[in-house]
């Protein structure tokens, strides 16, 4: 009477306790968070899972066992109180560095070096996967617009250097925020500028001077973010992200019967901070005109140009096709289609995205065009298997899917889909799209990094990586999504500034394999 059970948040606690105590339940499959909670390892949770009843615990994706992860809590509990319970850990990337591997081994055996930890290599791919480098040069328009944004960052950086001169340590850090030497200019990401701001708060006492310096540093990071959106992802994504920030900062009023009123907002303060900061600071205020002028140039000929032309949210909504009756419902408190101003803004930008993706004349970014070429070639020659397209950003993945549908859908009589994590897409929708893709209903599926782990997708033969992963382990996980039933092709789309990251990742993958082999020598 063999019995198995899947345990997750939708299974009631009382039912889970019954399953754990059922001697016929020889296999229990649970999420890590649920197992840790049921073992009483989460604050406020009562233990209902006794591992002494189990002979083995299997941890999938063990490389996630870091910090205060539920895997760490469970392994420590097993080592201290359930020594007779065997542990089997599964991962395609158990450790990227020797330190990571040492930490994992310590979780498994503590300081007892006599405790044996073995290695079992399993080859899951019928054939070696083929990694294909695809150099993608930047187009003249992307170079032109990104250069203009970089010049704005240079001006902000120059003033930040002047403000930091009385503090040599701060000045050195500010100088490192920008590097314009050679053919690969660079602007520090916002996690770097935030750390520098913390240093400034500790070191500079004069408040007015300090706040002005901090706002210039923040401005360099924010402009750098827009610069990376344009340079590394495309004009659409730049227009979408900056457009939302502009709307939250300047357009959120809706026209009522007698006045302009603000609809209910949940995210406004998060989205509008940059332009509100520029507006408050007299030195930074002129940069609003420079930045919006670049936005106006990039959006020329597209629906996104209405973001700057509309004087308020009502005009922008009507321009993009929102009905007046829906706007009236929102004015009366959000009882109709739009429950809040956020919902209206989200729909406006979805309409703008859909309109742009249908524009046959629009050329977004060389990366996007290369993706279309690869998918079109796959369809034209009727190649076996299906294609996964990876992008770091949900809106960009949607845009890619819609561009593929607009250019190739009718021509080849096919549809395309998108998947993403629960932050962007319901679990049921994502599961249905993956199932439809696996069944062959969609020849290509655009996805965020959500697809990187924990998904078995039959029939996926080709992966197109638009954004090169920052870590070698992430690249290895991506590779595991395709080629499980035959030849696996991985197209690595490489902009000039991304080739070095790809080569570093490939070298680290080899080092990871050597590290594992050296550690587990019989």
Q: In terms of topology, how is this protein built?
A:
Blueprint: E1 3-7, H1 13-21, E2 25-30, H2 32-38, E3 56-60, H3 70-81, E4 86-90, H4 98-109, E5 130-135, H5 140-164, H6 168-175, E6 178-179, E7 186-187, H7 190-203, H8 207-232, H9 235-251, E8 254-255, E9 260-261, H10 268-271, H11 273-280, H12 286-299, H13 306-309, H14 313-319, H15 324-331, H16 341-357, H17 366-380, E10 386-390, H18 394-412, E11 417-419, H19 427-438, E12 444-447, E13 460-465, H20 472-479, E14 489-494, H21 499-519
Parallel strand pairs: 1-2, 3-4, 5-14, 10-12, 10-13, 11-12, 13-14
Antiparallel strand pairs: 6-7, 8-9
Name a few traits of the molecule.
522 residues, alpha/beta, Rossmann fold, 3 domains, six-stranded parallel beta sheet, two-stranded parallel sheet, 21 helices, 51% helix, 11% strand, globular
Short description:
The protein is an alpha/beta fold. The chain has helices at 13-21, 32-38, 70-81, 98-109, 140-164, 168-175, 190-203, 207-232, 235-251, 268-271, 273-280, 286-299, 306-309, 313-319, 324-331, 341-357, 366-380, 394-412, 427-438, 472-479, 499-519; strands at 3-7, 25-30, 56-60, 86-90, 130-135, 178-179, 186-187, 254-255, 260-261, 386-390, 417-419, 444-447, 460-465, 489-494. It is 51% helix and 11% strand.
Commentary on this structure:
The chain has 21 helices and 14 strands. By secondary structure, it is of the alpha/beta class. The protein is globular and about 70 Å long. It has three domains: 3-109, 3-Layer(aba) Sandwich (Rossmann fold); 130-137 and 365-518, P-loop containing nucleotide triphosphate hydrolases (Rossmann fold); 140-357, no CATH class. The strands form five sheets. It has a six-stranded parallel β-sheet with strand order 5-14-13-10-12-11, sandwiched between helices. Strands 1-2 form a two-stranded parallel ribbon. Strands 3-4 form a two-stranded parallel ribbon. It is 51% helix and 11% strand.
